[in-house]
Structures are given as structure tokens and as C-alpha cells.
Amino acid sequence: QVQLVESGGGLVQAGGSLRLSCAASGRTFSAYDMGWFRQAPGKEREFVAFIRWSDYIADYADSVKGRFTISRDNAKNTVYLQMNRLKPEDTAVYYCAARRLGYSGSLYSRHEYDYWGQGTQVTVSS
Q1: Cα 83 from chain centroid?
Q2: SS3 label, residue 51
Q3: Which residues does the chain have with pLDDT short of 50?
Q4: Tell me: the pLDDT tens digits for 81-101?
Q5: Measured between alpha carbons, how far is residue 100 from residues 29, 72, 96, 107 in Å?
């Protein structure tokens, strides 16, 4: 089993930046595809970004493309989400997620992931 713990959230003004971290413990971190999702009040949990284990290919939701960057450091068992030029509509609880290798399905879907962190709050003021 893998445990995921997010950190780095907080309150920031529009146009500012934050870097979220997701630290993994338990079984090997490097053998998982990783994703970031977010959930705003009254909304469904939505895809933000993913990064694949095999080739480090990454992709992003259209709403964050060009502003957010996902990365991972397997030596530190950590995945990051660098968020720049933040907007009020980015306000949400951000969750990291892990998917075991060997499964088919879209990494854009929250239903495809096996493990989830508890989330970290990001609030962007206008």
C-alpha cells in the first residue's frame, strides 16, 4: 500500500505562485503513474495534470495549461505541481493520486487511480 501526503497549499493573491508537493511512503513510488486533481466547493473533482512513470510524459487540463507544471523526483519519492499566474478560479482542494502500472484506462479520469492523498487547500484571492 502507498500513502500520499500533500503539502504546500495556502493563501495567495491572483497572479502569484505556489508549489505543491506530494510525498509518498510505503511501496516503491517510482512504479506509479501520478496525477493531480482538484475539487472546488460544490463541484466535482476534476483533472489537473498527470505524469507517467515510464516516459515522464505529462499532460494538463486546458484550464491550467501553460501555467502549471507537474514533475516528479523518484529519488525523493515526491511529485510536484508548480502553479504560476494563479487565478481565483484555481481555488480548490488539491489532491495527488497514484495509479499502479499495468492498468488500462485514461489518466484524465479520477476513477483510474488507486491511491489518494488527503488534499491541500489552495485559495487564490482577487
Answers
A1: 10
A2: strand
A3: none
A4: 999 999 999 999 999 999 988
A5: 10, 16, 14, 11
